[in-house]
Amino acid sequence: MASSPSCSNYCYNGNKSLLASVIVSVIVVTITISSGGVAIAEGGRVPFACDPKNGLTRTLRFCWTHVPIHVRVQDLIGRLTLAEKIRLVVNNAIAVPRLGIQGYEWWSEALHGVSNVGPGTKFGGPFPGATSFPQVITTAASFNQSLWLEIGRVVSDEARAMYNGGAAGLTFWSPNVNIFRDPRWGRGQETPGEDPTLAAKYAASYVQGLQGNGAGDRLKVAACCKHYTAYDLDNWNGIDRFHFNAKVSKQDLADTYDVPFKACVLEGKVASVMCSYNQVNGKPTCADPELLRSTIRGQWGLNGYIVSDCDSVGVYYDSQHYTRTPEEAAADAIKAGLDLDCGPFLAIHTDAAIRQGLISENDLNLALANLITVQMRLGMFDGEPSAQQYGNLGPRDVCTPAHQELALEAARQGIVLLENKGNALPLSPTRVRTVAVIGPNSDVTVTMIGNYAGVACGYTSPLQGISRYVKTVHQAGCRDVACGGNQLFGAAEIASRRTDATILVMGLDQSIEAETRDRVGLLLPGLQQELVSRVARAARGPVVLVIMSGGPVDVSFAKNDPKITAILWAGYPGQAGGTAIADVIFGRTNPGGRLPMTWYPESYLSKVPMTIMDMRPNPSTGYPGRTYRFYKGPVVYPFGHGLSYSRFSQTLVLAPKQVSVSFSTPLKAQTNSTWASSSIKVSHANCDALHMGFHVDVKNEGSMDGTHTLLIFSKPPIKGNNNWSEDKKLVSFHKVLVPAGSKQRVSVGVHVCKHLSVVDEFGVRRIPMGDHELHIGDLKHSISVQTQD
């Protein structure tokens, strides 16, 4: 909010670390230890809430673990004063010493490992670091749901260990499941990519891994899916996220932007959803009851709490001027369904909002009940954690060899082989004895973990990884990724000329793409392209280009350069990224990653302002649409692209050819739509019996074991003016390991209501009648969908 001179109480300039200190300074918490305060446990620490050693709380009903949680919650709320309640609905919740309750910091992050971005987590002492997995966009490229689940499990092990040691909380505001709509978005790296199905599967899997499978309704940690909704612009062309009004159609909201969040709640059973800074169709998301109370909690049935992005309530009052007074802003948030304010706004203005009659104390009680319920599901009111399910986790369970090996395996699975001319890769260490390692990202460490990261257990840079295979000659070529004037090209050319092969590690870092920093173009920054071309011309052996980035890069020049024999995309590959890159280049790992987003040419940007949220093309204006589902123009590399050192073929073994749909509602109910004669509303169909099974044999025709990602797309029939749907959409994907020369059978489930339906212009999901086309790997198969007589 630094750009807005009208901040009434405090300003937020986009720096979340700064905001954390502002929150602490505004909400000053003083705990007095006395005979009437909090008892002191052995060792001098303040005991956990409801610690049996604390005689003060032993008789309090909210501490009785045999009592149902909802009864315990109401008992605790009934003991709180209004002033205490108000100070408990902000992220830096106060202590209530008379009830034996410590202060609690709700804000912690675990996007791809326990992070220190939020004030709730502190590294140091027995917890010097935590396992840092690849950035989410890289892990998404694995298309491996079991991997995402396992990463979540490991991250929550380390989070619980740090909580038990007093170094972290249990509420982690991750994952980011926004759709990577525009290739310039600086935070696209945090997301699972551009496809709603991929993002939804990632969201549900990672959340399930984080939250665990505790008994009953218990949670290992509480995950949070963010940022709801249609948030994917940070700072572009003078427009920032604090002032942006995303104009989104009902159709795009239903079939694109909301899909991952719905999956978070319905499939992942997530404990929290975060509303975003932006407005959607003129309303701040954190003040919109239709989005929060009606959709998230009502239609989807969230069992948890809704939190604002940090200072969002203050933003829509101070920067968006959505309400006349701050009390109205506070009231609007609570009435809309917001439970927790990341920031001090509600702590400052809720009391006056109640006194003015804008909300009641009962409204506040409902929000507080959602918060305390989650804390109790986490065991935070069950006393000392060592006696609980995860109480045995400690420092020895962080950065374990197994955890670090999983980080390496995740990086290997996420690397995408984009080009391999003449099967130049893998390189043979027996034939290639010396390698020139060149580029601004060739010896980086912190760059590899991207943003929203913590302190890694340790690093292996690309140079270090490659040096384990062959003798290397290192020349950066550029001093940094900006690669301005007065660079070191000459030394890089000499190194390339004198070695058997050249590996260029180029790309981006957080100075180019990050939170609050959207990109201005898709080309390699500065003079990087010139460096690549000059080194390639000078090289005497094969040239491998490795791109480290979150977003796509237009590398058409390299794709078309015959001297550049192979191109890899490594994303931001995490703490073990250098080992993974080298393992792929030298053939220890057979690459199997696929791009989770379209790589557009630079020319695409001139046709698509970031502020246009429409997914579908508009021929009358020349707007080309977004993502592979709607954009049909030229690309550098398409969504789902990825090569292997093996060749795979697919054969359909079992494939239904037709299915009949019966009505659960009389046909006459379908009125007022041009769709009525050619489709059925999903809500009117008997969906229970509309599941179809396919069997696909995947054969590895190469000489190297490898994993194959089987992508299944559906393409609906086109009739008259009813072409409101995608050209094709991803409906399922399967990761299968196939030994060389063998085949594996994959069972693919396709559900008519879920996978063959489309969304009309009113946001209503329908099943088009007619011939649907399934793309199963390289195969095409037609299914006739008709109404049952």
Automatic annotation (TrEMBL):
GO cellular component terms given for this protein: apoplast
Pfam family membership, one: Glyco_hydro_3
Cellular location(s): Secreted
Keyword Secreted: yes
InterPro entries assigned: BXL, Fn3-like, GH, Glyco_hydro_3_C, Glyco_hydro_3_C_sf, Glyco_hydro_3_N, Glyco_hydro_3_N_sf, Ig-like_fold
A single MF term (Gene Ontology): xylan 1,4-beta-xylosidase activity
Residues spanning the membrane: 18-41
Predominant place of localization: secreted
Domain Fibronectin type III-like residues, every copy: 708-780
Entry keywords, A to Z: Glycoprotein, Glycosidase, Hydrolase, Membrane, Secreted, Signal, Transmembrane, Transmembrane helix
SUPFAM superfamilies assigned to the protein according to its UniProt record, in alphabetical order: (Trans)glycosidases, Beta-D-glucan exohydrolase, C-terminal domain
UniProt name for this protein: Beta-D-xylosidase 1
Native species: Arachis duranensis
